[in-house]
Amino acid sequence: MFLAFSRAFDQLSDPPIRSVIWKSILTAVLAFIFLVATLSWILANTSLFYIARVETVVDLFGGLATALLALIMFPGVFAALVSVLSLFSF
């Protein structure tokens, strides 16, 4: 297992591997920026409560929850994008 890890780590210097990794990072970051921006816009333009202070708190915590979930989901989405992009890169 350590031999496989060291071989995989040594492949990070190969340009095709770096290209896939950078494309995956960029795609995942752009997808999550779009997700957070869209959900924040939906929360800001949707009125769930009649009390303005409660609506503001819900908007704030909804935006924070969206950002937190995006951070939690980032490694899985990144790994999926690496596997998909590596199929088409070589």
Q: Main traits of this protein?
A:
single chain, 90 residues, mainly alpha, 87% helix, elongated
Task: Please write out the topology.
Blueprint: H1 2-10, H2 15-45, H3 52-89
Helix pairs in contact: 2-3
General description of the model:
- By secondary structure, this protein is mostly helical.
- The protein has a domain at 29-90.
- It is 87% helix and 0% strand.
- It is elongated.
- The model has no long low-confidence stretch (mean pLDDT 83).
Structure summary:
It is built from three helices and no strands. It has helices at 2-10, 15-45, 52-89.
Count of discrete alpha- or pi-helical segments spanning 4 or more residues: 3
Any idea what the radius of gyration is? 19 Å
Number of strands: 0
Amount of beta strand: under 5%
Structural class: mainly alpha
Helices and strands, in N-to-C order?
A: HHH
Q: Poorly predicted ranges (pLDDT <50, ≥5 residues)?
A: none
**Overall average pLDDT:** 83
Shape call: elongated
Characterize the largest beta sheet: strand count, sense, and whether it forms a barrel.
Answer: none
Multimerization state = single chain
The helical percent reads over 70%
Distance between the termini: 25 Å
